[in-house]
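Checked the freezer inventory, then went back to the computational side. Two predictions to log before the end of the day. The first one is the construct we discussed on Monday; recording sequence and tokens without edits.
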Amino acid sequence: MCHNKKWRLKTRYGTNASRYVFDYIGDFHLSRAIVNRENKFGFLDRNCKIVIPIIYDNVSIFDSNGMAKVSLDGREFFIDREGSKVILDNLS
């Protein structure tokens, strides 16, 4: 539900599904949705719980391998669906 350009998740019965209000809520990909609040990004699960903190400067959706590219303080890296940093092997 959108009110005054802020988003809140509601259940099908009209009650609040989350205590948080967001500037943006994306579609779900691999059971995670991008959320934005005060120019920072994180992820919700399908139970409307913040499962990856809203701390990132930018994020991408999760790919088919379950990884999302994120940026934080000028550094880019990948995280898994639980929010853990993923170290990629150099294949070259």
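The second is the one RB wanted added to the comparison set:
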Amino acid sequence: MKRYGKETKVVLGIDPGLANTGWGVVAQTGPRLECVAYGTITTSSGAELSLRLKKIYDQLSAVISRYRPTAVGIETIWFGVNAQSAMATAHARGAALVACACWGLQVGEYQPSKIKSAVVGTGDADKYQVQYMMKQVLGLSDVPKPDHAADALAAAICYTVYGRTGGTGIDTRDAEDGMGYLRNAGSSAFAAAASASATGTSVSAAAASASATGTSVSAGPAGQPSANASESSLDDKVR
């Protein structure tokens, strides 16, 4: 695994869910953002709740141990869904936050609309637009799948833009650098995504096709490991 210097901030992103918890790790060096790894933790609906939460905690702890992020961006609960779904997500968020607290990570909590706005330019973006922007901004050869992993990468990038919540926040220059990178490196993609959101059309036929075919996730731009979305074992994902 690549080792980063003190000038690089490694950020974990989490898209919490009881059935599927997405995670993604991004490295920020000045205005440059790099995809380190990403994947999904899946739990069985037939398992006891306590065991499902333990799996989320254990596997996120393994991710943190391997990639050593210093901060985490995590989605808040969207109360537009039914109460049962919101409660399940709340359980998963709790397990994830405890894992992050045990490793002393700075925490940024963001509404889904704020994360979408940070990476796509509109809070009404759909999952395909988020996946497409993650591919463009992070220089991936394919859209990250499943969408839980893409959302987690977006949450990590949101942290580089807005910093931690409920605290002093990250250095203002880091936030400006992160937003500057998104605006400059992905300017055309920003425009395409925003336009697609306004017109109700697909951002990219290629992105939609890749999502439909279920092709495997490719490595990051610097040859860093990334997860195969079809694998259910974290040991395989972070090897």
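For RB: The mean pLDDT is 76. The first strand starts at residue 8 and ends at 15. Let me know if you want it refolded.
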